[in-house]
Amino acid sequence: MKNDLIRKLEALxxxxxxxxGDEYRGISLKVVEAVSAEAGASRxxxxxAALEAGIIPLRYQRNIGSIGIEGQLKLRKAxxxxxxxxxxxxxxxxxxxxxxxxxxxxxxSDSFSEDNLNxxxxxxxxxxxxxxxxxxxxxxxxxxxxVDMDARQVVVSGDNVDALIxxxxxxxxxxxxxxxxxxxQEAARRLRIPLIHGAIAGFLGEVMTIFPGDxxxxxxxxxxxxxPEKGIEVQVGTPTVTPMAIAALxxxxxxxxxxxxxxxxxxxxLYLDLEQDVLSxxxxxxxxxx
Length: 290
Hints:
It is a single chain. The protein is an alpha/beta fold. Helix content is 41%, strand content 19%. The protein folds into 2 domains: 2-69, no CATH class; 78-283, Rossmann fold. It contains 11 helices and 11 strands. Strands 6-5-4-7-8-9-10-11 form an 8-stranded mixed beta sheet, sandwiched between helices. Helix 5 links the parallel strand 4 (79-83) and strand 5. Helix 1 (2-12) packs across helix 3 (43-52) and helix 5 packs parallel to helix 6 (132-143). It is globular.
């Protein structure tokens, strides 16, 4: 089937000129839609076939100069879990969909309330009372219909966390409760999946990338049942700008991990104080976590 797709795409590809002046072969969204319908293939599969043939879907052309066709192809084949669809998670879903992640697993048990309107990009006045994962589904379809969406409106627990994230290439922590963050980290370790941590409070934010075997969140929050339920965000709130900044950094960490790029924020915590214009890193000594 893939060879048939490639032949169709090669016949329909046109020559385009990049902003650099270089010419490339590309296909429009309309071509992707038409070939998908004619061949009975998903739009994601059509885009993967195109990239494998060196044909660039126009929606990704501005990515290619930085990550190349091979990089875009890796992103199109990746499955990423975003746990939490609120302030951090909503912006992550927006960014990763536009970047072209192949499949997004979005997990959140909550519905929108009015106090989400200040910072949660998926929340509109018409969404109050509606499911966050369903809003995520609608948003992904409107941004990039070639992204496969797996929406789970469930409470993450010790009974289901392994089954939920199994088979993912990466897990992103966009949660707001510390015990559940620790629970997800332990599951990611067991399943040998990298984890991107992000947290916000007031104008403060932090990001860390945790590979299996790394000393991670217990260095920040403690472990063994001693971690508090919430952080200082319950006192200082979560204003609009902070989740946007931290989610962008988490999305970049996700791209680094999926593409094997240099310099992930590993064995250290990136700390951002937007009010004081402070960006700093705290080194975290690794430890055997087996």
